[in-house]
Amino acid sequence: MKIAVVGKGGSGKTSVSGVLARSFARSGHNVIGLDCDTNPNLGLSLGVGDLETERLLSLRDQIDEGEQQHAHTWDDILDAYGTDAPDGVRLTVVNRIDNPEPD
Amino acid sequence: MIRIAFAGKGGAGKSSISGSFARLLSRRGGPVLAVDSDPLPGMAYSLGIAVDDHPTPDNVVVEGPEGGPKWVLRPGLDAAGFIDTYASTGPDDVRYLQFGNTWGHFQTLQRGQHAWSQVVREMDPAAWNVVGDLPGGTRQAMFGWAKYADVLAVVTEPTPKSLHVARRLLNITKAEWAPSQVVVVANRVDEDEDIERISNALDRPVIGSVPNDPAVVEADKLALSPLDHRPGPFVEAIEQLVGVVESTYDMDDQRATKGKP
Predict the structure, then answer these.
(1) What is the ipTM of this complex?
(2) Which residues of B touch A41 (CB under 8 A)?
(3) A55 and B CB contact within 8 Å
(4) CATH homologous superfamily of domain B3-258?
(5) What are the Cα distances from residue B221, in Å, to A50, B133, B211, B218, B229?
(6) d(CA B240, CA B247)
(7) Which pLDDT tens digit goes with each residue over A47-78?
(8) Does residue B104 or residue B78 have the better pLDDT?
(9) Which residues of chain B are within 8 Å of residue A45 when distances are taken between CB atoms?
(10) Chain A nearest C-alpha distance from B256 (Å)
(11) Per the domain annotation, does A22 fall within a domain?
C-alpha cells in the first residue's frame, strides 16, 4: 500500500503522515516514510528529532557530492540514506533546498 | 518607498500578515503594489480582493528573443502600463498583481508568470511601495524570487517545524543577490517565552511579534481579510510592524548610493 498526503501549507500534512506511518508500523506493517517536500520536516513529526532531521541529507545531495554511488536497489537506497524512526519506521528524504542558488 | 517580501513555512501566516500589511501601509498614504508569487491566491483573501475576477489575456506577452526569457511583455506594454491595466484594485486602494491561478491552464500560467516577473523586475521603484508574498517553504526564496525586495521578512511560529524552515530560509543571506535586510517576524505568539524561543533559535532581529488572535481564525473561516472582521491584537501588531518597517527599513537612500535597481 502506498499513501501520499497532500494539501495546503499548514493544513497538517506532515503531522498526519507522521502519525499514519507510526500507526501502521505499530500494527505490524513495514513502513517507509518518504519525505518528498523540498523543505523536509517529516522527521520532526515522526519523532527523530531536530538534529537528525537536519543531518539527514537528501539522496540528491549525497549523489551530487560524490559521497555515495548510485544505489542499485530500493533496499540499498534505504540502507544508505535512511534513518530509523520510532516504531520501526524507516525515513528517507528525496530532495531538499537549503541554500540559495547562484545568480 | 518600502520593498518587503514575506516568506516562511506553509501556514506560518505569510499571507494574512502580508495582505494586512499592504492595506495598512496604503492607509498611510503611499501607493502600494501587492505582488503575490504564490500560485494559490492566499494573499487575495487577506487583501479582501475577489480571487478569480481578474484574468489577464494571453496576448499580454509575446515570445521572447533567442536566449532570453521565453515570454516577454508585448511591444508597447511596459511594467507601468501593465500595472495600470491589469493589476486588480482592492480595498484601501492596494493594487494586486497575482502570479498564478487566475491565469488559467498551464501554458497560460507560464505566460502570466513571465509577465509577472518582468513587471516586478522593471517597475519604477520610485512609483510604488511593494509588499510581496512568497509560497510556503524554501524553494522560491532560494531561487531568487524575492530579489525585488530590500527587506525579506521570514515569518515563523514558535514551533520547531516552523523554526526549522525559518533557519533554512535565513541561509539566503549567503547569496550575493540576497535582499539587504533579512529579518524575522514572530507569529502566533502567546507569551514572552515564545518570542525568546524564536530569538534564541534564529540569529536575526525579530522586528515584529504578532499574537495568536482568534479574530484571525474567524476571519479565515469567513473568507474575510482580518481588517474587515473585528479588530484585535493581530491588526494592532501589524500596524506596529508597518511603523517599524517605515521608520527603519526604508532603503531608498541605500538604493540610491548603491545604484541598485
Answers:
(1) 0.75
(2) 161, 164-165
(3) no
(4) P-loop containing nucleotide triphosphate hydrolases (3.40.50.300)
(5) 32, 20, 18, 5, 11
(6) 11
(7) 998 888 877 766 666 666 666 666 568 788 78
(8) B78
(9) 161
(10) 22
(11) no
